[in-house]
Amino acid sequence: MKSVVFAICLIIFAVVLVSINAEYGQDSEYDTLASKLLSRVLAQKRNAELINSLLNLPQKLQEAGK
């Protein structure tokens, strides 16, 4: 009888561990995806600012030479 109760407790414990691991595994995947998307957006913003500053550079040089 004790071995049956022990086996049932082990099964319940294993199911709980698997469910906890599945939840945290999904969260970390979403966090990783969100951080990748955020870094891409920030990189695109930096690139756009750099391109705009380079395109406006000749105009700024002309204004400085006046």
Describe the structure.
It is built from two helices and no strands. It has helices at residues 2-55, 57-65. The mean pLDDT is 77. This is Pigment-dispersing factor II.
Q: Termini distance? A: 97 Å
Give the H and E element order: HH
Domain module tally: 1
Radius of gyration: 28 Å
Which consecutive residue ranges, at least 5 long each, have pLDDT under 50? none
Strand content: under 5%
Class derived from helix and strand content: mainly alpha
**Sheet with most strands:** none
- Put simply, the count of helices is 2
- What's the rounded overall pLDDT mean? 77
* Percent of residues in helices: over 70%
Global geometry = rod-shaped
Number of strands: 0
Organism: Euperipatoides rowelli
Signal peptide: 1-22
Protein name: Pigment-dispersing factor II
Keywords: Signal
Task: Put the structure in a nutshell.
The longest helix is centred in the middle third of the chain and has 54 residues, at 2-55. The protein is built from 2 helices and no strands. 0% of the residues are buried.
